[in-house]
Amino acid sequence: MADFVKVATVDEIAVGEILPLTVHHRDIVICRTADGFFAVADECPHDSSPIALGHVDGHEVVCPRHGARFDLATGDVTAPPAVVGIETYEVKVESNDIFVKLN
Fold first, then answer.
1. Containing domain of residue 96, as a range?
2. CB neighbours of 2 closer than 8 A, spacing ≥ 6?
3. How many separate domains does the chain show?
4. CATH code at 48?
5. Strand partners, 6
6. What is the distance of C-alpha 42 from the center of its chain?
7. Rounded to whole angstroms, how far apart are CA atoms 34 and 40?
8. Contact assessment for residue 8 and residue 23, using Cβ atoms and an 8 Å cutoff
9. Are 80 and 91 in contact (CB under 8 A)?
10. Each residue's pLDDT tens digit in the chain (103 positions)?
């Protein structure tokens, strides 16, 4: 069973920013929107580009290479060229700490 792992603090990431991390040998990014924090794999399934070099647009993260877009909550593709979604991770915030549950 996977446990939540502390990965950052709330004040480390502003709204609209992406924070790249390696947690238990997995490259992930924490994205902050006006609605909270989301965690996804740091690799675009279209061409393996690092998502950390992209940007947050509303509730989506945009791949820097070809502009594929992914819903931060579900990982679903919202704009091509990607056809496969991105892996997401459950996030919780306790006090000032951000935790991610690795699958």
1. 4-101
2. 101, 102, 103
3. 1
4. 2.102.10.10
5. 99
6. 7
7. 17
8. no
9. no
10. 469 999 999 999 999 999 999 999 999 999 999 999 999 999 999 988 999 999 999 999 999 999 999 999 999 999 999 999 999 999 999 999 999 998 7
